Structures are given as C-alpha cells and as structure tokens.
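thread: overnight batch results

M.L. [08:02]
morning all. the overnight job finished for the chain we discussed friday. pasting input first so we're all looking at the same thing
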Amino acid sequence: MGMVPKGSFKTTKRVGYLCEVESEKKGIAHNMRRQKGFSLIELLIVVAIILIIAAIAIPNLLRARIAANESSAVASIRTINTAQISYNSSYPT
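M.L. [08:03]
and the structure it wrote out:
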C-alpha cells in the first residue's frame, strides 16, 4: 500500500473512490456543524428579495389608499347633499 496522509481517508478494507466519498461527507458534515449564522451572500439575497416584494407591494397599497380616500370623499359629499335637501325641505325660503 502507498503512503496516505494520516487522517485524510477512513481506514477500511474498501479502497479508492468509496473511501474518499465517506471522508468528504464527514468533512462537509463537520464544517456545517461549526458554521454559525449566515454568510454575507445569503443575507444580501434575502434583503434583495424583501426589497423586490416591497417595490411591488407599496404602489398597490398607495393606490388602494387613494381609492379609499376618494370613496370617502364621495360619501361625504352625498351626506352633505342629503342634509342640504332635508334642510331646504324643512325650512323653505
């Protein structure tokens, strides 16, 4: 057998690719356990997605608010008109 660096591969009777794959899987699992938090790229992607959703939602909310104000103004004018008609019928000039 050739010289293999200590700790680089799992010592089993299997040789070749399978031992390398097991070693890589253990290395990946070990690195994921040590990692705490999120990377900068992950955070930037999340912020970008939130900004895109906000850019879509805010104009729709503003349009809905404008429509609500207009319908409120129409209702107020109708109420004033009804009150004026009622006043004119109660107190004719």
